[in-house]
Design a protein that fits this description.
single chain; five-stranded antiparallel sheet; alpha/beta; 11 helices; five-stranded parallel sheet
Amino acid sequence: MGASLAGLRTSQALREGGFDGDIVLVGAEKDLPYDRPPLSKEILLGTKEPEFAALTSPAELEELDVDLELGVAAQGLDPASRRVELADGRSLSYDRVVIATGARPRALPVDQNGLDLDGVHVLRTMEDGLALRAAFEAGGNVVVVGAGFIGCEVASAAAARGLQVTVVEFLPTPLHAALGPELGAIVEHLHRDGGVDMRCGTGAAAVVGSGRVEEVVLTDGTRLPADVVVVGIGVVPETGWLEGSGLEVSNGVVCDERLRAGGRPDVLVVGDVARWHHPALGRRVRVEHWTNAAESGAFAAEQILGRDGSYAPVAYVWSDQHGRRIQLLGLPESGDRAHLVLGSEEDGRLVALYEGDGRVHAAVGLSNPGRLMRFRALVEEQAPWDRAMELVVQLRG
């Protein structure tokens, strides 16, 4: 259930593994499977058209031999009878079902009337991306609410197009939750140097206008003129359709280290919607990044094909902002300390490591991919800190 990257990758991996049974790919969107990262990059910048984001072609899908059910959402799941209910009234039977329904943008906690105004956007689908691109082409003042990866990339694209951009972030720095305060401050400087007005430590209290957005009122009383508002305050796992299924839903569909919901081998969960037990980290995680969607889809296919193993990837995300690439390996934990170990902000190239309980939990690089990837194995095994320092000394030499 879900015809984006995770669902498509599951189908491809099944065929690559020799599966010759029927595969039905169900998706709420009408478009053929496409890549989401270009939406906030090339598509929004106007340097590429929608075809650039295509994950496959009609000819490739025909060769893959899948039945496509696009433009129809899943509405219910009955694991006992092994049936999926669709929004158009039909139902499908299954031997195995893969839940890949992703997530939807989180709404601003303000008067919803303001969010119905023309000029207020989110960015999740191709339709969203093209609508926002058209809004950017019209010009004006852009206010981005939220400075996570999507908000920062949208702000970067808007600034590159010559627009006046203000970012509003409730937390002390951009990417605060993902990178922490030290690296978040470096990202803030990157945006300020790129011409973005960063307003951290304050939130959006209201979106106002008459028919069309005119202002964003902040919690500190500031009123920002706005022709375009982009809400980028995170996403919510798309799990409402599973109500009554008996599956455990808590910040995603809860599953084990083999991505099985409730330990059931016939119900697998992949991509943004999966909250699984990560055996290397010893806790449940939910990861919203491209690599997890692709890797979990391939892993689910292996489970269907009868192979053993646990899903324990090194989380990875990249983000292009103001001509620079930010890359994160692993998942920093609350309380971790960030140590800048290679390069510097002034150099424009750096690597920082996240340390907790004497171990390496994650690594982040700014325009320094080669050196960052040298730490991948250490992050994967959550290596002792002194081993990481040995590698740092080696790389400095």
